Amino acid sequence: MRTLRHMSIWAAAGLLFVATEAAQAAGGKTQAVSISFAITADGKQVGCGAPLAELGAGHLTSKLHEARFYVYGVKLIDAKGKRTPIALAQNDWQYGDVALLDFKDARGGNAPCTEGNPAKNTTIIGEAPAGAHIGLEFSVGAPVETIVDGKPVSINHSNVETAAPPLDVVGMAWNWQAGRRFVTLEVDPPSPVLKADGSKTRSWMVHIGSTGCKGNPATGEIVSCAHENRFTVAFDRFDPKKQRVEFDFTRLLEKSDITADKGGAVGCMSALDDPECPAIFEALGLNLAESAPGANDAGKQTRPGVSPVFKIGPAKTADLGGGKQ
């Protein structure tokens, strides 16, 4: 298909090499790993076109418009805290060590997720060395680069038109800085969103990506960003057979008025001067600006491994969003 699509084989080979080395240390045995994700609102699993109850500062019933995010660097944790990477299967949802989770249904309708109307992709699959793993770690975002065939390959700032799936999703492109949206979450409140200029729009949005970027990736120039806006989530205890990772929509928007926008982009699109962003970044566990003059921690995680919107919940008997595996 595409050049980068073929390169995904090399990326997989690199990851499998890491897994193989660890597997050899574990007696050569490996195990299949499947990590399920879900989004919740008001304590209930939601997705596809399901209504979202008790959302925002006004506790409103809203509709899910979009919900997807990239994760990478997925690792299992043993009792001594050692991290072991999961070698992801290479498919339309996983490239190298990056995966895209998408909680909308393919039809884009109003129905909740069911076995007959599943979300596009809510599960990460791969392989890891056999062992007594008791925890989980992953990062949210698209990494700057990964190693493919022994060479660094740009991930965040790569051409969406030629990139391998799932990096070719136009709806996750961060057009004005040639990077990617790490997180795209959009909701439609019961009434149109009133903007600062008096106009109205349908959706209240949360788009997270790196900002303050310099460099032109189209000419091969290295891109650096002042505010990375990536974050890591770590759970000391996690059993993938009995538990799943949950993203709490209620927690994300609990301090946000989703019926109004006071300035800047509608909702929060990671801008330092956007009045809607401080509450969103606090919920994600990110510093929007420096925590103190000279701290140099803008765009960095407030507490390593901790994001208030992520938690562990019980796994459901039926996975309603396995996607194309």
Textual characterization of the structure:
The chain is mainly beta and 325 residues long. It has one domain (3-314). It is built from three helices and 24 strands. The strands form six sheets. Strands 3, 4, 5, 7, 8, 9, 11, 16, 19 and 22 form a ten-stranded antiparallel β-sheet that branches. Strands 1, 2, 6, 10, 23 and 24 form a six-stranded mixed β-sheet that branches. A hairpin with a 4-residue loop joins strand 14 and strand 15 (179-180). The radius of gyration is 19 Å and the shape is globular. Residues 1-26 have low confidence and may be disordered.
Short précis:
The chain is mainly beta and 325 residues long. 11% of the residues lie in helices and 38% in strands. It is built from 3 helices and 24 strands.
Number of helices: 3
Number of strands: 24
Structural class, from secondary structure content? mainly beta
Name the helicity range: 10-25%
Strand fraction: 35-45%
Name the shape in a single word.
Answer: globular
**Mean pLDDT across all residues, rounded?**
87
- Low-confidence segments: 1-26
Distance between the termini: 18 Å
Any descriptors?
325 residues; mainly beta; six-stranded mixed beta sheet; 3 helices; 11% helix; globular
List the helices and strands and how they pair.
Blueprint lengths: L2 H23 L4 E12 L2 E3 L4 E5 L4 E19 L4 E3 L1 E2 L5 E2 L2 E8 L13 E3 L1 E7 L3 E8 L4 E4 L2 E4 L18 E2 L4 E2 L2 E6 L4 E2 L5 E2 L2 E5 L2 E4 L9 E4 L3 E5 L7 E6 H5 L23 H8 L25 E5 L11
Parallel strand pairs: 1-23
Antiparallel strand pairs: 1-2, 1-10, 3-4, 4-5, 4-8, 4-11, 4-16, 6-10, 7-8, 8-9, 11-22, 12-13, 14-15, 16-19, 17-18, 20-21, 23-24
